[in-house]
User: Fold these one by one.
Assistant:
Number 1:
Amino acid sequence: MKSGAHATHPADVGGNPTNEKMDTEQVAHHQWEKEVRVMVDTMYKGTWDRMRKMMEALPQDVYTAATYYERWALALIKILIEEKAISHEELLLKLGYTGTEEGPPSEPMYKAGDTVKVKKEYAHKTPWERP
């Protein structure tokens, strides 16, 4: 890259002029972030270079809007689909899409104040936050 040229990838921010403070904190604050870390540590047996490349391959708007652990989750999903551990269709079904929609549902499945009945406790006792 010649002198004065700007980076072409959102992960390569070195030398780019900005007034924004860079978030360098990588501590998992929320339970889901800890769970993403555990999933990556237990499910992904590849190199960290591949995880980094998968994160850097995210579209620029997605990469810049995502938090640190959201990027981890997206990279892991891409790897699991690529390795055929789960299909894109299986993932969508697990996320609640039936296949009849033309994209993500416009209305959430539940809203604040809805009564939700938990059918059974999970054997692994993950401390999921319930509504």
Number 2:
Amino acid sequence: GVVDYQIKKDRILNLQYFPFYINLVSGQQEGKDLPPNSASVFGPETSALLQVLFEDGSLTASQTILKASSCLTEDSEDPVNIQKLWSSLGTLVSQKIIESCPANTDQDSDIPKFSEDGKKMPGLPHLKISDLESAVSQGNVDNLKDTVYWTANNAVCSRMYRDSLIVHSAVRRIDDTAGRIVRSILDAVAEVNDPWSPTSSHLSLATITSRVKKDWDSMVSHLDQYLTILTSDRTRFVDKVGDAGGGQYQVNYKHIFTEITASTLEKIILERFGSKSMRIFRFIREKKYVEENQLQQVVMIPGKEVKLLTYQLLENNFICLQELRKTVNNNAPSKAIYVFYVNFDQVVRYCQNLCLQSLYNLKVRTKQEYTACERLVKRRQDVEKKTKEYEQQATEDQDIDDFVAPLIPAEVEALEALDHKLDQCNLAHMATLNTLFILQTYLKYKVS
């Protein structure tokens, strides 16, 4: 037989999000106000573990510890606690943030046959910490009995990122307390429900209350009022679907991301065309079909300007124009009215393509900026390295400038300009990725 391989575009794009996943798991993105049992309080050790797994794809547990300890040693001069790293790795396994890879059961065959037994493994292999510390200090873990490979669980990481976006949206729409309650509800839903279903199963008021009390004891007294606010908000972070047992609630992920996506598209239009265009887009989307005369009356913009703005939106595929004939008789004089409408899915796909193009442009721009100043960057690195060496060797009477030629002011100014440009490119890259994830999640729920 012949083995066929294919490129998984979704998985390649998913690799772009790994900085977000690492920040979420290590607790650097959502801040300190998190439930004690939340996956976002695992600490900085998990950052190094996840980073090496994302970079290498799959590693054994001992190889992961070895590479993570090397990364931590480069960043800090303090000795690495192997016991703590091993405990953090076990936590990632128990929370299903990483999973074991299927094993090839037929090593001699040209066609690999994978077994799923590895994913049913309860935890990490039983290794003595003393043996692991000795192997890590020697830089060789091949002699350890560790044959199971581990990889990052993209589904769980994506779910955590999705939940963090919903929590941030609740904080912006209402307040911090509402965000924390939504966080507890989402964590409770993830434990009993398929995390990527369009809607969750029903949660009773008692279940929500016990979860919020476990995470935030002081918020239980105001829970009823906040649930009322969350259900009545336009985004509908929680839906009330029954009155049994004090109330039955569910999370409609599909509707939530429809609203978040709409808000994201409005921000894109605001940045590109201004607030008046955003007002026109929002009104057309809410009313579904709108004539030009209605636009002039409702959005309170002069007719000439309305025509210009609607043409811009139409030209950039944010709104569509449809002709409605008043008569079907071909011999009668042509009478028709023209209405504007928003093909929401088409707009989302168009903006998704814009995001992908922007990511490519940012990578090209970053490379060009770095290449233009590559010589200066290498010179700065050499100066810093030599300065560090001579600081340890030079006496009090000796000046470091006698050993190392410092950067001249023009070079320092050029490097500062380069750092500023690279920081701007990095911020734009992260913001574009965030927008792309929202759009992709909406389309994922739309298909389902």
Number 3:
Amino acid sequence: MQAFEWASAMVDSSRVSTFVISILLIVYGSFRSLNIEQEQKEKDRDKERQVAVLSSSSLLAILNPGSEGENVMQTISVWQAMCMPIGASISLLIMFLFFDSLQLVFAICTAVLAMVAFAFLLLPMCQYLLRPCHSNNKVSFGFCGRFTSAEVLASVLSFLIVCIWIMTGHWLLMDALGMGLCVALIALVQLPNLKVSTLLLIGLLIYDVFWVFFSSYLFSTNVMVRVATRPAENPIGIIAKKLHLFSVGNSAPKLSLPGKLVFPSLQNSGHFSMLGLGDIVMPGLLLCFVLRFDSYKQTQSLPSDANVTVLPTSIKYYHRITYFQCSLVGYFLGLLTSTISSEIFQAAQPALLYLVPFTLGPLLLMAYLKGDLKRMWTEPFRTWTQPKYLEV
């Protein structure tokens, strides 16, 4: 009977939703990042061609500086990767110790960030809807900048979603905003190489394990779970109470901040599955990196290291598996292991404890077998040039 209950818990709708949505967010965010990078490279090539045409003319000096491509991608350095677990710990402590006095600030900042991220998520859909009447001309909004019609529509829709979420506090809208944050972070933040990826993920693994397993010894409670599940006062309610509109203030629902994805169960009322955004974004950054490397290796036809031993025919199938496929399967297995552990121990588990080894370990092994480990560790996107003359 216990085995049946354990198996039914594994296929619960909340668990299945967690698996499907987290994997879809990583896949979509990774391909969105790859598409943005390719569009940026195409713009740079067009600009180089324009410069080449005008280089012999004095008109080069009147080129419009506004036409220069803007790099929206943020690359994490070694120093940032090493400091990120420390910064995350400080932020977690501030939210734990000063949540009551700063919850209005947390709610407003989170709402603004979620609105921008959700607009980024909606932008492709808005571009598709406005394609028949869409133009690349940007409209000026003063000090706010210049935006296309699709960007304006995405921003308006995102603003409306955030307003409805504040007024209702519905978990589905919170999840939608969290999904926007996941996609935006995966698509716009890049890992430059495998060394930075390893430093970042191992550091965050230690951070996750400490605050889930050992924080209760210092603070008499699980700090990570406490911060993740603590609702914030509604900004509308706080403002209404200051204006002595107590009926409005008391009716305003508390807000669960979109730092996690929550999926209620359809089978068990009151049961839900929760996954932190960091458990999606951080492994997602690694998968985005290997997807970029797969694409770059395919377009450049990069040679493998010359000193790698030739693999036997029996394991040649490794070369037919991309790094992205390997890491995505590893993420699924890590998430499955984390879910099984939470069911066995009936307690919150640090998901990165399982996700990092299952994604990073097979990736390192496959990179070694394929002869790409040294290149991926330091300079994965270095341009490789074939020698003009082959030595015989």
Number 4:
Amino acid sequence: MTSLVESKRFDNVLTCAIVISSIILALDNPLRNPTSLMTRTLQALNMTFALIFIVEFILKVFAHGLHKYFREMWNILDFAAVIASVMDMLNVTGGQR
């Protein structure tokens, strides 16, 4: 497992996923009709990339353990993004209802 998460190919695939995911997020518009095909497609793609990043987190934790995983600042940033994605998937909001 360690050789997989430390491989250049794994890193390249995730870098591509980050770029594509960022483009998808940039295309989103909160004022667009929530039932439009574009909105539903972007939501599905966002969910797909969130799952990819969750799997990345799980693989790295299994390969390195939590302590080593959280010693790298990039992993902390990745973890924050995973938490934000999970909260978005669960439709968690802050503030008053």
